[in-house]
Design a protein that fits this description.
DinB (chains A, B); homodimer; two-stranded antiparallel sheet; 153 residues; DinB/YfiT-like (chains A, B); mainly alpha; Four Helix Bundle (Hemerythrin (Met), subunit A); 58% helix
């Protein structure tokens, strides 16, 4: 599972770098499909991942707040900070609690840790797929989504 | 890893069902981002998955051919048939060969089995994310990408 997180983090970094070519207007412009804008998509991806990974650990949810004047640099810093905490957990957590039920504050149902890890991974890949359409609609080449060739191992 | 394949297959079935509401014209219309059209995307997803999973097994590549008059029913049948073969392999293959190098006919480089499984999984989720934008651009609600709540376990 860690490999998928490393893939997502690497692709996310490349997209944040990619976004530096866009004007402020293009970054915050609301588009069809996906979650609002380029900028909001990154915030949403980081927020969802961090919330669920903290939830698995029974840590209190940290409510992150989005504002339209957030910069790419601030999103990158937020991503880096959350990643440090999550990676330390993911590296040491092991599979022995994969089927343990997890209950979080923002959802009525209870899920297994394993189910949540799959959910968080697919969630980011899905939203990045949406960004790739928005990129092409701007006549720009999107970041590659390939896993092979990334040397994540 | 099998859970991700089951997720992808379930989501793909739901999207193929979803597509039945679209006219032939909308199904084959080339769109920005993604791979050509709704119909071609499914063909591409099935083709890529099947080729790589056969490649891992050192089976000969079966070149599938796309034609614009292919039906949803034919794509569903192709998907079902390939899935039967792949699922049997994925259920029995185990992790002991995860790092074994795999060489396929259509790529110069060599990859590990584990790398290829990650690649195939992310590949489909990425393209499905693109379909969700195209759906919203048609003012239609896309299939849910959520993993949680699907009872894949």
């Amino acid at each position: 599972m860690l490999t998928f997180f490393q893939y997502n983090w690497q692709v996310r970094d490349e997209w944040l770098q990619w976004c530096r070519q866009l004007s402020r207007e293009e970054l915050v412009k609301e588009r069809a499909g996906g979650v609002k804008s380029f900028l909001y998509t990154f915030f949403h991806i980081i927020d969802v991942e961090y919330s669920w990974i903290r939830g698995i650990q029974e840590k209190e949810d940290i409510a992150l707040e989005f504002t339209d004047d957030v910069t790419i640099e601030q999103l990158q810093a937020l991503s880096d900070e959350a990643r440090l905490e999550m990676e330390a957990f993911l590296r040491t957590s092991g599979n022995n609690t994969a089927d343990a039920p997890v209950k979080v504050a923002w959802d009525e149902a209870s899920y297994t840790k394993n189910e949540i890890l799959h959910h968080v991974i697919a969630h980011e890949i899905h939203h990045i797929g949406q960004l790739s359409v928005w990129a092409r609609e701007l006549n720009l080449k999107p970041v590659s989504a390939n896993v092979i060739g990334r040397k994540l191992y």
